[in-house]
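PROTEIN DATA CARD
Card holder: Heme chaperone HemW
Chain length: 355
Origin: Arcobacter roscoffensis
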Amino acid sequence: MLLYIHIPFCDSKCFYCAFNSYTDRFHLKQQYMQALKKQLKHELQNYVEKNNKEIETVFIGGGTPSTIKFHEYEEVFELIKPYLKKDAEITTEANPNSASFDWQKGMFDLGVTRISFGVQSFHQDKLKFLGRSHNSKSAIKAIQNANCIGFNGINCDIIYGVQGDTLSSMKEDFDTAFSLPITHLSAYSLTIEEGTKFFDRSSVKIDDEELSKEIFDYIHTKGFTQYEISNFARAKEFESKHNYGYWEHKEYLGIGAGAVGYYENNRRYPTKSIEEYIENPLNIELEELNLEDIKTEKTLLGFRCSNGVDLSIFNEKELEKIEDLIEYEKIEKIDNRIYNKEFLLSDELALYILG
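Structure generated from the sequence above:
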């Protein structure tokens, strides 16, 4: 199974960010980490150990994990160590502003194998427009440091579809990224979500499917293969095993305020409030998923990536629709799985089959 750890602290709140993160709760960091370790220990002992499971991958996300000093993660790594699969992939997100050489080296020495930088752009005007706190130089330096330290995988996040973006300006961002020692690229289309500064400002987003296709094609020419709608890797070994686990509908622990877990057919939601989480990190809301819910998720997720979907989950009516899509060359069947040829159509194809 997988393990996700959520760090809800940020130096600044990006204008598009809807994640559970705070810029005014830094005084609660130590109490939060104590509560996090309490939840982690409880779930490791009461589910992972009890059911003889292994942790295949770990992902420390946020928020900004690099706002927590590396030595404050030591007890977390001690707790998970007995349950880790050999050669487990361990990823941390990081902000170029706070991911100093010392912080990265400290995390590497604790066992982190992969690092993901929230760069979003190398254009200063765009960074300012998005509310990012770093600059292009700090992003470049952070990635170079990660390579010097010896991380096995280095990811760079880039956002596109922002007001003013063109294929030419995006090529400049990607060219800068590809000039650096990255092994993985995540190219996300800007989404406007409720509760963000960009909400009710639809003009900040460009909806241009043709631009998306041109971007995907350009990334491919640089030797990066698309294996999910937003994710590209230099080689198969650099694909995110943790993300693949989600897409394959594996079980995962969600540790921290606002994290999400999933096991025993239940989605598990710890409270989002940092204060309430510190008070009781074991107060977790459950949402039971039925077989139809699971089928829908497997189809939607499988069509968004190169994993595909097993035909055995579909009923007779759905299989007839699948045959139609195969005939019109929208999807393809290999052995007992179906694969989507065009990730941008993933939701439409899945909804057609299940509708």
